[in-house]
Amino acid sequence: MRGRSGAALGALGLAFVLLEWVLPHALNPYYLTILTRIGVAIVAAVSLQLVSGFTGQFSIGHAGFMAVGAYASAALSVYLGAGWLASLAAVVPAPLARALYYPLPLLAGGALAAGAGLLVGIPTLRLRGDYLAIATLGFGEIIRVLILNVDAVGGARGFALTAASGVDLRYDDLGAIYAVVLASVAVIARLAYSSAGLAFRAVREDEIAAESIGVPTTRVKVLAFVVSSFFAGVAGAVFAHSEGYIHTNSFGFVRSFEIMVFVVLGGLGSITGAVLAATALTAAPELLRGFGELRMIVYSLGLIAVMILRPQGLLGARELDPARWLARWRERRAAA
Amino acid sequence: MENLLQQLVNGVAWGSIYALVALGYTMVYGVLKLINFAHGEVYMVGAMTGFYTARALGLANRPSGLGLAATLLAAMATCAALGATIERVAYRPLRHAPRLAPLITAIGVSLLLQNTGQLVLGADPKFFPPLLASHEMLRVGSLAVSNIQLTVLATALALMAGLELVVMRTRVGRAMRAVSQDAPAAALMGVPVDRIIQLTFVLGSALAGAAGILVGLSNPKIDPLMGLMPGLKAFVAAVLGGIGSIPGAMVGGLLLGVVETLVAGYLSSTYRDAIAFVILIAILLYRPTGLFGSAQPEKV
To answer: Could you tell me which chain B residue has the CA closest to the CA of A130?
Structure first.
């Protein structure tokens, strides 16, 4: 046991060193942007996986919660954070002050998105199947249009993360972003495979049967929805702070579709599948640049082909578990 | 008051286009329980076909009713063929797959058509040729109805009546209704289910093609992404009327067009896009089966 967690810690440390100190110098800014976008996509995908894959409730309005998180965190940073950052920087070195401040907007964005999730979830989760999907799609669009009409966050002009004092609140430190990604994935995975997660899966398999053995189905669904919205909000907040400028156009239903594609393509009910699909599909349009103008056509054809060949998604409901592979390999070696 | 009437007239003309697109959504949902997200792009292809047909026939500067009919037929035929192809390639292989899989291929097809459109036709907007010389047909006080609005409405109503005839009065229509009630049972009675499903796509897509031409008449600016938002709203219209119900889609489309025009006219045009979804949510919460849908009892 100790050997395994030691190896895992070592791998994590190595990854952090790589992300924090090596890659920012080795790669050009374009690739670094793609890496941060992959991080955002992973958090969004895994958060939707909890609702769609584990609880069986299809939501296609996830971008709306991302928007709430992005705008709430950005407003906090622009209107209050800049001042706090200045007083913090008076005590500790500036980079450390930024790193210490960073979790604050993410938590605020997540909390507000979770609140929005609660408001949307309580009435809509009575609906089932396609009707729920359509209702969430509608709420996603309503959230977007409402934000578009708030002048304090820029309205149709978009919202730049620059304080009135001129302080730039962009934060795209790869080490910090991937620490957030790791924490989000870990929390959702622990939840999905806990006893609460068992209730989630019971609701997914058969709502009536779950109800009859005493699972409070409505509460379970709302819980999954709120937790999922929280992490969608975190994804939005990370996105806002790494891009430095946000616009409601980034959070339309096309973005919601994209997140749903990650989840279904990766395999409903597989956290690692969602991570894999989010990574591959976010990188794909960039990796396909060689096709020039044809790249989005190749991308959409690929999407159709993969879905026809593997309707259950890349991984189905299974997980990739390197620790188990290692254990199996050791067993086999010991037996030989 | 006259202003209100004017808005109503504009809303009905606009809503009849939603209704035509909504019919395709509702018919496909009826037989397959699939939200065909590529349907908005079929409507875009209809408008584009109209644009190029009109140019090829040299109709741009010679408005005529005959030219309009020719473009309409060309767009409907192209879209019908496109709908049949989409069904065969992207949905039929997934007939027995988990229900979300065809939804993802639908999104894939929608992306494919948008991007192919942008690559082949260019991303910049095109201007639909005036196939009819616009003039006022009716005037009551300050209320004006143009010949274009009347043509749009008349064509849409004629197509809907035709569809209603096909579905309610022909053998094929009876087979479609049978498949939508219970596909396995219909198959046992000798209904060729796959062919009927394909036919449903053909009819729905032809109507979307016609809607593409009608929208070109009244809002001439067309581009490869034009199907995205109207497609989604037509879907809302279908849900509003009761998804799976043909009269529901017609009423839902007209209603949505009127409400949107009124909101844009009296409140603010920025809320125009949201109102469709507010109605959607109100309907889903208070009457999830829509205006014309019937509730399905839940079996344990």
So the answer is: B35
Kindly identify which residue of chain B lies nearest to residue A126, measuring between CA atoms: B285
Q: CB of A151 within 8 Å of any CB in chain B?
A: no
Could you tell me if residue B135 is inside a domain?
yes
Residues whose CB falls within 8 Å of the CB of residue A278, separated by 6 or more in sequence, listed in order: A38, A41, A42, A44, A45, A46, A262, A266
Give residue-wise pLDDT tens across range A87-137.
888 888 988 888 899 999 999 999 999 999 999 999 888 887 778 888 898
Write out chain B residues lying below 8 Å of A147, CB-based: none
Residue B126 in 3-state DSSP?
A: strand
Q: Is A149 on the interface with B (CB under 8 A)?
A: yes
What does the alpha-carbon distance between residue A45 and residue A285 come to, in Å, rounded to a whole number?
17
How far apart are the CA of B280 and the nearest CA of chain A, in angstroms? 7
Domains annotated on chain A, with CATH:
2-335 (1.10.3470)
Which tokens go with A26?
């080795």
pLDDT digits 0-9 by tens, B122-153: 888 989 888 877 777 777 777 788 888 888 99
3-state helix, strand, coil in chain B (%, to 5): 75, 5, 20
Condensed to tens digits (0 to 9), the pLDDT of residues A143-169 reads 999 999 888 888 889 999 988 888 888
Is the residue at B233 inside a domain? Answer: no
Q: pLDDT at residue B298 above 60?
A: no
The domain of B151 spans: 16-227
Partnered with residue B139 across adjacent β-strands are B144
B100 touches chain A (CB under 8 A): yes
A172-211 residues touching B, CB cutoff 8 A: 208
To which H or E segment does residue B137 belong? strand B136-140
pLDDT average, residue stretch B7-16:
90
Is residue B167 assigned to a domain?
Answer: yes
Q: Does A285 touch chain B (CB under 8 A)?
A: no
Q: Cβ of B188: how many Cβ atoms within 10 Å?
A: 9
pTM of the predicted protein model? 0.87
A189's tokens: 């995975």
pLDDT tens-digit map of A261-294? 899 889 989 999 999 999 999 998 888 877 877 8
Tell me if B188 is assigned to some domain.
Answer: yes
Q: How many domains does chain B have?
A: 1
In one letter, which amino acid is A186?
Answer: A
Contact B116 A124 (CB under 8 A): no
**B222 and B125 Cβ atoms separated by less than 8 Å:** yes
Count of C-beta atoms within a 10 Å radius of residue B1: 8
State what percent of residues in chain A have pLDDT above 90: 49
The answer on pLDDT for B73 being more than 60 is yes
In chain B, residues with a C-beta closer than 8 Å to the C-beta of A150 are: none
| Shortest CA distance from A143: residue in chain B | B274
Residue A1 has pLDDT above 50, yes or no: no
Q: How far is A131 from chain B (nearest CA, A)?
A: 7
